[in-house]
Amino acid sequence: DNPEEGITISIQDDNFLKWIVKMEGPSGSPYEGGILTFKVDFPVEYPHEQPVISFYPIVFHPNVNQDDGIICLDMLREWSPSFQIRKLFEEIKTGTYSFVFCRVNISPAIC
User: Closest Cα partner for 52 from 37, 66, 36, 40?
Assistant: First the structure.
């Protein structure tokens, strides 16, 4: 499958478990007209364990960890091996995502 329009994916350092995803800022958001860049780190156990997705550079948002840019999404918190990474970025792109609050003392894997 090709990614959603407005999203490009590249492999980082020839490691298929590390992606750089560039996405046009969602319409109607403060990021409209800009490009959002994410780092995606897939665990070896993927899809049984969720990927870690972080903004690069870090953006200011109450649900983005300001130390490492890791975002918390309901879809990641409630991860299932049946989820597709494409769907996750489609939700981010369309603005239908639901951020959950991250606390610095909680592991990104369970935030």
Answer: 40
Q: What is the pTM of this model?
A: 0.77
The beta-strand segments (E) located in the chain are 7-12, 15-24, 35-41, 52-55
Tokens 């690069």 label which residue?
Answer: 56
Tell me, what amino acid is at 73?
L
How far is Cα 45 from Cα 11, in angstroms, rounded to an integer? Answer: 18
Dist CA 111 CA 105 (whole Å): 9
| Catalytic center residues | 72
**How far apart (Å, rounded) are the C-alpha atoms in residues 39 and 85?**
13
25 Cβ contact partners less than 8 Å away, ≥ 6 residues apart:
31, 32, 33, 34, 35, 36
pLDDT for 10-32, tens place per residue?
999 999 999 999 988 777 777 77
